[in-house]
Design a protein that fits this description.
Layout (H helix, E strand, L loop, with lengths): L11 H8 L2 H14 L2 H27 L6 H38 L6 H52 L14 H14 L7 H4 L9 H23 L11 H16 L3 H34 L6 H16 L1 H31 L2 H4 L9
Helix pairs in contact: 1-5, 1-10, 2-6, 2-8, 2-9, 2-10, 3-6, 3-8, 4-5, 4-10, 4-11, 4-12, 5-8, 5-10, 5-11, 6-12, 9-10
Length: about 375
């Protein structure tokens, strides 16, 4: 597959979908359960002070196509693409877990029926969908981004209304937790992941912006959409589950959403249908998120490898058993390294590089037009 340039006017949906994806819907509530409602404050501060300026710079730099001869920028992009590919590889397992949970609710009225058979089936379906999206390039990602945003918005708006009626979303607010360095590191890692920053994604999506539009305004829309999505997910989960029994992030998040389902539906056919639908929506969101994260690495390899989408899906399938080892502890360790170590280091390198480019310094304060 030769990498196609982004020409679609609606391509911004690919970027918004990447910024309002699985990180919002799944990982953010789990971190709120871990740190309490204070995590929302830490996340908002990190978004405003660090991630918005970095997003503007990434969009501006990618759109102007600066750095084409810069070896430093090339190294940063390679590291970012490799890290996002790593995240995409274990996202395949998360997406399959969500898909199997949807099937399990439809068949058994819970999230854990069917054993490994449903997981393997869901993994095949997920990777087939990812292959189609990667082969379709920007156009397919734009459509899946639109679908992901629409479905998740409808789902979490409804759940957030139910959460507000129930109350107690911020009963776990403890300002003393903000003194912990871990909450800020988790907030930064989550924000970078959720906005697909330091991943080589947003510079590519910059090509989708209409001519004459402002990168600063586009970055603001993406950042606001991200935060709104996070708040909706928080209001959808915290009122129903303020504690969790498992320490592994992915599984505790599935526990949390299962508690939401049974809190709203006491059981029977209602819980079965609602549970299947909720996890199906999360699966769609996960598929778009992992395809978006895989795309930078796929694009960079396009000139050398003709069947890179297929190779990526095969690699994800082969590594799936590794990521599920020790009750998915391996996946959680990789997630911690990729989001809270690698992404942060790459973001620091990007920031230093952008600061060295004088013409970028005014891009955040002065909207540009082309």
């Amino acid at each position: 597959m030769a990498a196609k340039k982004f020409k679609n006017k609606n391509g911004i949906f690919a970027a918004v979908g990447a910024a309002t994806g699985l990180g919002n819907a799944f990982r953010f509530p789990a971190l709120c359960l871990k740190h309490g409602a204070a995590f929302v404050i830490a996340y908002a501060v990190v978004l405003a002070a660090v991630c918005y300026p970095l997003l503007v710079a990434e969009l501006y730099f990618g759109r102007k196509e600066d750095g084409k001869g810069s070896k430093i920028w090339a190294v940063i992009l390679r590291a970012a693409a490799a890290n996002s590919a790593l995240i995409a590889l274990y996202y395949a397992v998360i997406a399959a877990k969500l898909g199997s949970a949807s099937l399990s609710f439809a068949l058994f009225s819970n999230a854990e029926g069917g054993g490994n058979y449903l997981f393997v089936f869901a993994l095949i379906v997920v990777l087939t969908a990812v292959y189609v999206l990667l082969k379709g390039s920007s156009g397919a990602l734009s459509l899946s981004g639109r679908l992901s945003v629409t479905l998740s918005l409808a789902l979490f708006c409804g759940l957030a209304i139910a959460g507000l009626k129930r109350g107690g979303a911020f009963s776990t607010l403890d300002f003393s937790r903000l003194a912990s360095g871990e909450i800020w590191l988790d907030a930064l890692g989550q924000a970078l992941l959720a906005l697909s920053l330091a991943a080589g994604v947003m510079p590519s999506y910059a090509k989708t912006l209409p001519k004459g539009s402002s990168t600063a305004a586009a970055a603001l829309k993406i950042t606001v959409a991200n935060f709104v999505g996070c708040m909706l997910a928080t209001l959808s989960v915290l009122p129903f589950s303020v504690t969790f029994s498992r320490t592994v992030g992915v599984l505790c998040a599935i526990d949390a959403f299962s508690q939401v389902i049974f809190a709203l539906c006491s059981g029977g056919a209602g819980a079965r249908i609602f549970g299947a639908a909720l996890f199906a929506v999360l699966t769609v969101v996960a598929v778009h998120s992992l395809a978006s994260l895989a795309f930078p690495a796929i694009s960079r390899a396009a000139d050398k490898i003709r069947r890179e989408p297929l190779f990526f899906c095969i690699a994800a399938a082969c590594l799936a058993p590794v990521f599920t080892l020790d009750n998915m502890l391996v996946l959680s360790v990789c997630d911690k390294i990729a989001c809270s170590v690698n992404a942060v280091a790459i973001a620091v390198a990007e920031s230093l590089f952008f600061l060295s480019q004088r013409h970028i310094k005014g891009a955040i304060a002065v909207p540009d037009s082309i």
